[in-house]
Design a protein that fits this description.
With about 140 residues, the protein is an alpha+beta fold. Helix content is about 35%, strand content about 20%. The protein is built from 4 helices and 5 strands, in the order ααβααββββ. A 5-stranded mixed sheet has the order 1-5-4-3-2. β3 and β4 form a beta hairpin.
Length: about 140
């Protein structure tokens, strides 16, 4: 009797292993957030920086800084996707939203820092900074500093 059941037991074990491997391969932690989204998975935005540009929301201050520092929305998205997080300039414990300072070179060779606040449903662009050139900016709220 046991000899007849052995092939069925092996098949069940193989099926469980295959399902487990497929589950791990589609998890959000594998670096491919779009695949996880398409599979109906959720992304935990409380565990690390979420690089999806579809959730971007620009503050008025950010738009003003972008305009005077000649940084476009496409460049902000480029740095969001490929930039390095400067943890010394980031505030991961900021409430209500942790802030991340991403740095990198844009396609037109501008060395920039983009400060983003990752909230529950949106990632807000807080400000943009040109790290090599001082631009004269006069944005609302600058008088308060």
């Amino acid at each position: 009797m046991k000899a007849k059941a052995l092939p069925y037991i092996i098949l069940v074990v193989i099926a469980v292993v295959v399902l487990f491997i497929r589950k791990i391969g589609s998890s959000p932690g594998n670096g491919d957030t779009n695949k996880a989204e398409q599979a109906g998975g959720t992304i935990n935005r409380n565990r690390g920086f979420d690089r999806r540009t579809s959730l971007l929301d620009y503050t008025k201050h950010a738009h003003c800084r972008m305009e005077c520092r000649q940084i476009s929305e496409s460049e902000v998205e480029e740095i969001m996707r490929t930039g390095s997080i400067n943890y010394r300039k980031s505030e991961l414990s900021a409430k209500p939203c942790p802030t991340y300072a991403l740095e990198g070179m844009t396609h037109d060779n501008q060395h920039v820092r983009i400060v983003l606040a990752q909230c529950d449903l949106k990632t807000k662009v807080v400000t943009t900074i040109d790290l090599e050139h001082e631009w004269p900016c006069h944005c609302p709220g600058d008088d308060k500093k």
